[in-house]
Design brief:
alpha/beta; seven-stranded parallel β-sheet; 11% strand; Rossmann fold; 2 domains; single chain
């Protein structure tokens, strides 16, 4: 039986408590890696109100999947704590092969619907500290372990595979910023053969999303009746398998500086979601929007939000000029 593809490799997943971070950690473990699972929520001290998940649970899932999970409580906005994390990785492993920046912490800070001049500056800046500054601090102290060996992969987890507006100024700035971080770090690291890229999941069935929809992973399809877009949702393991495939690819360097998606990499590398499906959000969402604008019935507010979202995705894409024009005309008719 062949060895797991990431046997003897060492990964740090920053923001591994739940959601995409937990899924990525688990799939790296399934590929044989030792995974340091970091975050602020530890047993007895949850850091996110209303969420019970901990990094110890994630580490146990990594080990159960076939790797070795190590939980290290780290606030990635505190530079001294990040320095201690990587000093420990250096002392215990002597190397770092994969670094995943998935720290977010902005759900409670995002004020949807409001225009930017009505947003709380304090909340917005706190969001940027958590979701952008933390990534910079983490890469600053993790990447030197890769530079020493002229090898490694850094993954910036974002939301969306376009540069289109995401509906809230601070949310948009954070998600586009980490994609730009990947591009900028890739430029600096080119001579050191360290790959940096940005990666987005599709519609994610995270623990919080399942709870909000009143379903579990076992019966998630029951939520489709209320939200038809849920039909093409994916588990956190899908983007996790994307990261594992990238880490195992000897030619991953050609992707450095780019922005990729779970569904696109699934086609390229041939993996499926953990439930055996292969969701393709990138094809599904445009089809749903096209069907919506072709309906005879007047749109509701949610319909207009969906159409605007798609318009923002394509308005600066020259190859999608015709679609952008159709969407703009539809929005103009239904102001």
């Amino acid at each position: 039986m062949p060895d797991p593809p990431l046997l003897n490799q060492v990964a740090v997943v920053a923001g591994a408590t739940r959601g995409a971070g937990r899924g990525i950690a688990r799939m790296l473990g399934a590929a044989g890696a030792t995974v340091y699972c970091t975050g602020r929520s530890v047993r007895g001290r949850p850091a996110t109100e209303g969420r019970p998940e901990t990094i110890e649970e994630t580490a146990a899932l990594v080990t159960a999947a076939g790797g070795r999970g190590v939980a290290v409580r780290t606030d990635h906005t505190v530079e001294a704590e990040v320095e201690r994390l990587f000093a420990r990785v250096r002392a215990e492993q002597g190397r770092l092969d994969v670094l995943v920046n998935d720290v977010w912490g902005g759900d409670a800070l995002t004020e949807w619907v409001k225009p930017f001049w009505e947003l709380s500056t304090a909340r917005g800046l706190a969001l940027l500290e958590r979701a952008v500054h933390s990534h910079i601090i983490t890469s600053r102290h993790g990447v030197p372990l890769m530079v020493e060996r002229n090898a490694g992969l850094v993954v910036e987890v974002t939301d969306g595979d376009t540069l289109g507006y995401r509906g809230n100024l601070f949310y948009d700035l954070a998600k586009n910023a980490v994609s730009r971080l990947a591009y900028a770090m890739a430029a600096d690291l080119h001579a050191h053969r360290v790959t940096v890229l940005a990666l987005t999941p599709g519609m994610l069935r995270s623990e919080a999303v399942l709870d909000a929809c009143g379903v579990t992973e076992a019966n998630w399809r029951d939520a489709i009746a209320e939200d038809p877009y849920f039909a093409e949702s994916e588990t956190p393991g899908y983007v996790g398998r994307a990261v594992a495939a990238l880490a195992a690819d000897p030619n991953v360097g050609v992707k450095s500086g780019g922005l990729f998606s779970s569904w696109g990499l699934a086609k390229e590398y041939g993996f499926t979601d953990v439930d055996g499906r292969r969701p393709d959000w990138g094809s599904f969402f445009p089809r749903k929007v096209q069907a919506l604008i072709e309906r005879d019935t007047p749109p509701g507010e949610w319909d207009l939000f969906v159409v605007r979202t798609r318009f923002y995705q394509v308005e600066r894409d020259g190859s999608a000029a015709d679609e952008a024009a159709r969407l703009r005309a539809y929005l103009d008719r239904h102001r």
